[in-house]
Design goal:
Length: about 350
């Protein structure tokens, strides 16, 4: 599927500009093992009332959640539908989900700030409190009520406590799906009440095959570079394909490669570039954290990575704070590079 053009797209935290939203995506790539687990649970008639679906950004968490929702809203917790949980795009349920108009589906996510129009940096308690009214409704004849929290990482403390209350008293024929990039940041009491489902990075060959479908006009060498930098995330690879994305991601990789002996001229150059771009800091921060996470996962197989995990958490907070408060992008990049260098000298990655 080639990049589409659409003149007006509503800003959403889970929308990748120029490509179909997860609720519009019928194809679910490279996660057969996870899909099989969900299929057995749903079609057995005894699915869990809460799922915690985790994995790196862009790896398919929302796509899977909407797939589960469509199946339950169409077939219920029965084996009447296909094993891959597919529901035809021209089905009435699919049409309602795509339009965001199905009464049995509630999606909770960060909302726009009424003063700035920009997305809020946290998922607040008022959003989560909508669960009580939604789950308290009487469903249609034999119907289901399904809520998706995208992403649960974005909740503040008050929202997390409100969610915990919803998990303690789940109604029948209801399912709550929490999507999380970093499930370890959620309250242990929330995690313990959910069935865990971790999505794994796509193998390089599978990711390249998907990119050939989504970006047929992009030269193969560029698609190979995207696949290598994306760390198994189709969503990230597609994001990198946009303006300056590949350049920023490659700069993040070089910064990590040379962490112990930083190239200050190159660091200043990328800091200047992010400062000139409207969303440069946000993009660079996402690519930087994603690339660092991939390195940590590789290193975890052979050594202690606790310092690097702590650094990654610190960088996530720093970039999020800088974006929320509109801090100077250049200083954020430079301070991140210094923190990276200190950690690399004490504990080579």
């Amino acid at each position: 599927m080639a990049r589409r053009t659409k003149p007006e797209e509503v800003e959403e935290p889970d929308r990748l500009e120029g490509f179909p939203h997860p609720r519009e995506t019928m194809h679910f790539a490279g996660q057969g093992a996870a899909l099989a687990i969900v299929s057995r649970a749903v079609r057995s008639g005894r699915p869990p009332q809460a799922w915690l679906i985790s994995g790196a950004p862009g790896i398919g968490k929302a796509t899977l959640a909407y797939r589960i929702a469509r199946y339950l809203l169409r077939f219920g917790a029965t084996d009447q539908g296909p094993e891959d949980l597919a529901v035809a795009q021209n089905d009435a349920v699919s049409a309602q989900v795509i339009a965001g108009a199905h009464p049995g589906l509630l999606v909770l996510k960060r909302s726009p700030n009424p003063n700035t129009g920009k997305l809020m940096t946290v998922l607040g308690v008022d959003e989560i409190r909508r669960l009580a009214g939604f789950f308290g409704m009487t469903s249609g004849a034999g119907g289901w009520r399904i809520a998706i929290v995208d992403t649960a990482d974005d909740m503040n403390d008050a929202a997390a406590n409100a969610l915990l209350k919803a998990l303690e008293e789940p109604p029948p024929r209801a399912m709550l799906m929490l999507l999380a990039n970093a499930p370890g940041r959620l309250l242990p009491t929330i995690r313990s009440r959910c069935q865990r489902l971790a999505l794994r990075p796509l193998p390089l060959c599978d990711l390249q095959a998907e990119l050939a479908k989504h970006l047929p006009d992009l030269p193969q060498p560029k698609r190979a570079s995207l696949a290598k930098l994306a760390g198994g995330s189709l969503g990230l690879a597609l994001q990198l394909s946009g303006d300056d994305g590949l350049e920023l991601a490659e700069a993040a990789e070089r910064l990590i490669d040379g962490a112990a002996n930083p190239d200050f001229a190159a660091i200043f150059a990328i800091a200047e570039k992010t400062g000139r771009m409207g969303d440069g800091l946000e993009k660079f921060g996402e690519f930087f954290v994603q690339a660092l996470g991939a390195r940590i996962r590789t290193r975890a197989e052979t050594g202690n990575v606790q310092r690097w995990i702590e650094l990654r958490e610190q960088l996530i907070r720093n970039f999020s704070r800088a974006s929320a408060l509109h801090l100077e992008p250049k200083q954020t990049v430079l301070s991140s590079a210094r923190s990276l260098s200190r950690t690399a000298r004490n504990s080579p990655l």
